[in-house]
Structures are given as C-alpha cells and as structure tokens.
Write a structure and sequence with these properties.
Layout lengths: L1 E6 L3 H12 L3 E7 L3 H11 L2 E2 L2 H6 L5 E4 L6 H10 L3 E5 L6 H11 L6 E4 L6 H11 L6 E9 L6 H6 L3 H4 L2 H11 L5 E7 L4 H5 L5 E7 L5 E7 L7 E8 L2 E5 L8 E4 L2 E4 L6 H4 L1 H17 L7 H20 L3 E4 L2 E4 L2
Parallel strand pairs: 1-2, 1-4, 2-3, 4-5, 5-6, 7-10
Antiparallel strand pairs: 7-11, 8-9, 8-15, 9-10, 11-12, 13-14, 15-16
Bound molecules: nicotinamide-adenine-dinucleotide.
Length: 337
C-alpha cells in the first residue's frame, strides 16, 4: 500500500485526492495546504491527517507526495520531496522559468526517486489508443499531426497575469502531446498569437488565440491550435496523418443522443471542461504512478518531458514575440538566423 501526502488542496488537488483514495493500492494519509481550511475540509472527506508540508516530508511513514500546489512552488517542492526520500507526482508545469526547472533537475539527479510530471492527456483513453495504433505501425510513418485544444471560456485576467502566458500555461499540454506522439522533440518552432477573445488579455501582455507549427529535421510537421474560448465547450481533438492512413481522436460528448429533424442533425456538446473531459485520464495517470513506484514500471512521464515542454513553450513565446522561426537544440533555442 502506497502511503501518500497530497500537497495542495485546490481545484486539481481535489481530483487527485479522490483518485488516491479510490485506488486499491494507495492511501491518502495526509493533506497539506497553506490555506488550512482547504486542507482540513479535504482531509476530513477522506479521513486523512492535516499536516504542514514540512511535517509531511519529515514523516517516514509517507512514501510519496502528489504536488498540486501553485505552479511557482513546484520546483522547490519536488527537490525537497526527493531529498526526503519521497516518490513524486507533480502537476504541470515544472515551473514557469526554464532555468529553475533545469536547476530542479540538477538538484534531484542523485536522489534516486521517481519524479513524474502530470501531463494527464497522455492517459486519456482515446489519445492513448491513437498512440498505441500509431506505435503498432497501423498508419505507417507519421507525417502530419494536428492538435486542437480550445477552452470553453478564458480564466479571469488576474489569473492570466500570473499564468506565464498561454504557451507556458495552456499549450504546455499540447507541446507534451506532440513530443509524446512523435517520440522526440521538434527542432523548429513558429508561433503566431492574437488577443481576440478579450482585449484585457492583450493589455496584460498575453494572447488568447494561437497557432504553433513545429517541425523535425526529417520533415515531420505538427500544428497546434489553441483558443481560450470555444462557444460550444471544451474542444480536444487530434488527427495524425501517416503514409498509410489517418488516425483521429474526436471530442468526447456529454451524451451519445443525436437528434435528426427537418432542421438538421444535432448531437450533444463536448464535455464541459478538463475536470469532466479528463476524469478517466487523471485516474489512469495515478494508477500508472502507483505501478511505477510499487512495481518498478517505467516512469511514463519524466521530469525531462516537463522540461522539454517548457523549452518549447519558451521558444513559441519568443517566436510569437519576434515573428520569426525559433531553432531548438535540446533545451537551448535561438531565433533563426
Ligand atoms: N493537469 C491538469 O489538467 C491541471 C489542471 C488544473 C491545474 N493544474 C496545475 O495544478 C496546479 C494547481 O492548480 P489549481 O487549479 O488546483 O490551483 P488552486 O489555486 O485551486 O490550488 C492550489 C492550492 O495550493 C495551495 N498552495 C499554494 N502554495 C502552497 C504551498 N507552498 N504549500 C502548500 N499549499 C500551497 C493553495 O493554497 C491552493 O489551495 C497548477 O500548477 C496548475 O497548473 C493542472
């Protein structure tokens, strides 16, 4: 039985608490949050103890921590946790600053603890099926990957201001998805962004609508489209064209009822937002982490994956700002000559 402390009892922490408690091989033994009331409420729901972060990390009975605190705390908490001998599942992104994420990697390198980053979309049953079919060679060599990711509505501008920008906050998931599907990091990034949804987002120095084109040295291409608003809900699709065919993962709808009348053909909207759309993915993500820690399964998402996505987000930000392609080598990048 994996004994787990949850750090951060906010929106996503509550999802993880449910999955940790529901899993047959893990137990939620402690919850820590700087907002004591949030920790108390969540801990009471699952019969867990309320501890401070320091107490949780010092407790030898705790095997693993799930870090679901605010982004700016992730890098420090990862390093403190592995130094304390805990296995770590940390929410995305690793940090908003690439240098801090790289420093975290250096600081934790010798600790021998698994560090998994919460790129939950890899565990979505539809996306995972697409990936398995591709890896099995069912459409031949992958050539063009297209990822659509639109939120139903933008967050408050107060959130946008501290989010690190659309590329680091939102598109980070899609950067990870394209690297995961193609199995490597692209070498060229071109980004265009606009503030079309809310001028206040533009005034805050961010964009709410963006397209990024990524390419690999062998010619493969990926396109990511993001918007902070889709009037019909959370739009999450991908399409992979290969030499022998096409794999497409469509939206998951609120129900399967379709209505056909003289007026036309109507189906339900996509599931509302990430809590609904990715409920199964968060569950599978947790199961996968448990299997890594208890059975030694390969770590499915590494700290390096988190760093790669962050480097792509930084490169895309630079490309959007300069209007020029950006060339990547590992996690280093520069505007094309
Ligand atoms: N993978 C996903 O789909 C997904 C979805 C939502 C959020 N996230 C990520 O999860 C993280 C949390 O997001 P959220 O929406 O749950 O935010 P939130 O604000 O609802 O919750 C964060 C919680 O962490 C607590 N906290 C902050 N600093 C702390 C510290 N040093 N020690 C202990 N507790 C601390 C806050 O008091 C708050 O209760 C963010 O990094 C976000 O990017 C990921």
């Amino acid at each position: 039985m994996l004994k787990v402390a949850l750090l951060g009892a906010g929106r996503i922490g509550q999802v993880h608490a449910r999955n940790i408690a529901a899993h047959a091989e893990s137990a939620l033994v402690a919850v820590a949050d700087v907002q004591l009331e949030a920790a108390q409420k969540l801990a009471a729901e699952y019969g867990a103890n309320v501890l401070s972060v320091e107490q949780a990390l010092a407790d030898p009975a705790i095997d693993a921590v799930l870090i679901a605190t605010s982004t700016d705390t992730h890098a420090d908490l990862i390093a403190l946790a592995t130094k304390a001998g805990k296995a770590v599942l940390c929410e995305k992104p690793v940090d908003l600053a690439l240098e801090r994420a790289l420093a975290c990697q250096k600081a934790t390198a010798g600790d021998g603890q698994p560090i998994m980053i919460g790129f939950n979309r890899r565990f979505d049953p539809n996306f995972a099926t697409l990936k398995r079919a591709f890896d099995a060679g069912e459409i031949g060599k992958g050539e063009l990957l297209s990822v659509t990711s639109f939120d139903p509505a933008p967050p408050p501008v107060s959130y946008i201001k501290v989010s690190g920008g659309l590329f680091r906050d939102m598109m980070i998931h899609d950067f990870d998805i394209v690297c995961w599907i193609f199995g490597s990091v692209p070498s060229r990034v071109m980004a265009v962004g606009s503030a079309l949804v809310d001028p206040a987002i533009g005034a805050a120095g961010d964009v709410d609508t963006a397209v990024v084109t990524l390419s690999w040295d062998d010619g493969r291409i990926a396109v990511i489209k993001n918007s902070r608003r889709a009037a019909y809900g959370y739009d999450q699709r991908m399409e992979l064209l290969g030499a022998e065919g096409l794999l497409a993962a469509k939206n998951v709808l609120e129900n399967t009822v379709e209505k056909t009348t003289r007026a036309g053909h109507v189906s339900a909207k996509p599931e509302h937002f990430f809590l609904e759309r990715y409920a199964k993915a968060y569950e599978a993500e947790w199961s996968s982490f448990v299997n890594t820690v208890l059975r030694g399964d390969a770590l499915p998402v590494t700290l390096q994956d988190g760093i790669n996505a962050l480097a792509l987000a930084d490169a895309a930000t630079l490309s959007a700002e300069t209007g020029k392609p950006v060339i990547l080598k590992g996690t280093a990048f520069e505007v094309a000559g």
